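I'll show a record.
***
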Amino acid sequence: MSRKILSLIGALLISLSLNAQFDTHPEALQAHVSFLASDALLGRGFGTPQGLISAHYIAEQFEKAGIEPLDGHYLHPFIARQGILNIPGNNVVGVIHGSNPDLREEYIVLGAHYDHLGWKIVDGDTVVYNGADDNATGTASIIEIGRNLAERAGELGRSVILVAFDGEESGLLGSGHFLKDSVVAPHQIKLMFSLDMVGMVKAHKGLDMKGIKLLYDSDHLVGELARKYKLQITKANSAIEQRTDTAPFGKYRIPAIAPNTGLESPYHKPEDTHEKLDYEGMARVSNYLSDVTLYLSTREPLSKMAGLQEDEEPGSGTKTFRLGLRLNNGTSFHNYKDQYYSGKAIYAAAGGLMTNIRLSGNLHLQPEILYETKGSKHSDGVLRTHSVTTPVSLLIMTDEDQFVRAYAQIGGYFSSQFGGQISGTPMDFDSDFNDTEYGIIYGIGIEGMNIQMGIWFQRGLTDFNRESDNRISQQSVYFTLGFMF
């Protein structure tokens, strides 16, 4: 009989534990945000004394919340090279150890960047970008989530890393160095959350959970578990957000989720101050994410997305083939090879499909098929052609672990012209003008968040005019914009 009673008591305790709600205090969140977003901290700029004060405050709050330092200290210092400067930054890292001996060496990372845009002088006055929603809210939330989980550490299976990232606004620097420096071995990280702007639940009418569909239990997490805390999940997908600290983790093939309440606050404006925020809503988000983390700490497996193996390099899981859209805007003109002058430039444009084939980390092949219109102005009026153009370029890119990558581009193109006119008169491609053209392309640009921007020079090598005594080549300069899916 006593064994049955003990079993019933055990089952009851487990049931109570599973149904127990977390209880984050809105006042605690408000106190953290009010301090971090105060004028005294001058917008927590990266590499500033005020940023360091913020880091020490977060470390102190971690300690008070029962979050242990990782390897004996909370600060993870790193150096970021920007131009000719070496700028010091500091992540703040704490750990709550799991209790399952088979899972405690695996980690769930709860991160939030604490830096913001700093300040500037306008008409002799100091204008502070306080960054209350962006991202004192995320920082305050991970402190209180850490407190919640530390109080129930015995129920955790995996260990939980709490990290306040520095340098996010300067290019995801802190999260990149956290992984690159192996503060925790990346292959041991099984899941990551980046809380970035979570202070406008009421205005946003809920919480976005971008990336949550990467997890096997996503339906339960965005359904029953969210309703437990009276939260509406307004966006749930399987895409890793590229504009916050989830992006570097995605490159390591770690499922990374971005809780967010949208851009309802004054995003990147001085008006983003602490009194505008919804602290009751923040408390519900903190409770919900505490429960999500506790639940996932014991689940196995978590996701079909496999992280890197111990000896793999980041980027090895990068897509080999990507499809995208291209839009070029610029000018074109005719170069009269046998004369001392050139035609006057007119507006030129091209648009269509592009593909990007990864040959290696630094070499990409980029074939495209575009509609193109270009021409020149000369003595007979404006000449304009319409063609199908197929550029093929080799992109030589900087390293893959950079948030924004620069590239140099070189290649060639072939055009088939299907129409044209000179001041309204159709062009004669049978006797006067050639209807095909080939030439070279070269340029430079940058790529980040699957968007390419650059400048592209196009030089025709064939003769546009069929008359051998008056050779003409077409030349164009484009500002380019490409989006990769």
